[in-house]
Write a structure and sequence with these properties.
By secondary structure, this protein is mainly α. 64% of the residues lie in helices and 0% in strands.
Length: 177
């Protein structure tokens, strides 16, 4: 309950002081300016409606507002993740998209490369994609040739594991030359 000496919740003052930070948080979390504005507006409405419950012992106005916005953002993200109630009423449903095998292959390769360390990616990219020899790469980076060869071996081994059964013959594409 509101206690003697606690500040009165002034919506205009609170919005002027905290609205920008709340909006920045919401838009960063949601990626949608309109949805973020709705969340912030709803947060101030809820805070105003429960203003008699505000007390310094429960925290600052800013803390309370952020808690409300966080809950609204979470609810919004959960709503997005839920499947529609009636799949036949989905607006704008499109025809199935035919996958481009080259695009799928590149996406799988990109995702697999992302699982490697930067050192392994550097060696694989330089030697396999740019055609740089181990000696030249060693001179550029200051890393011994033996270390570069070891990185290539373990990088390709990790890449093959990450690719799993996605490729038909990764030895042709990722030979350790």
């Amino acid at each position: 309950m509101h206690q003697e000496g606690d500040p009165v919740f002034d919506v205009r003052e609170a919005f002027a002081e905290h609205g920008g930070a709340l909006f920045a948080y919401a838009v960063n979390a949601l990626g949608d300016r309109a949805e973020a504005e709705d969340c912030v507006q709803e947060a101030f409405i809820r805070a105003w409606r429960s203003r008699e419950w505000f007390s310094r012992s429960r925290g600052s106005i800013r803390t309370g507002l952020f808690a409300i916005v966080r809950d609204l953002v979470t609810d919004s993200l959960r709503a997005r993740a839920r499947p529609p109630a009636d799949p036949e009423k989905i607006e704008g449903a499109s025809d199935p998209v035919t996958e481009d095998p080259l695009a799928v292959e590149r996406l799988v390769l990109y995702e697999s490369l992302a699982t490697l360390t930067s050192e392994h990616r550097q060696v694989i990219a330089a030697v396999q994609l740019d055609g740089v020899g181990y000696q030249e790469l060693s001179e550029r980076t200051g890393v011994p040739v033996a270390t570069l060869r070891t990185r290539m071996y373990y990088g390709l081994k990790s890449l093959r594991t990450a690719l799993g059964g996605h490729t038909h013959d990764e030895r042709n594409v990722f030979a350790a030359g």
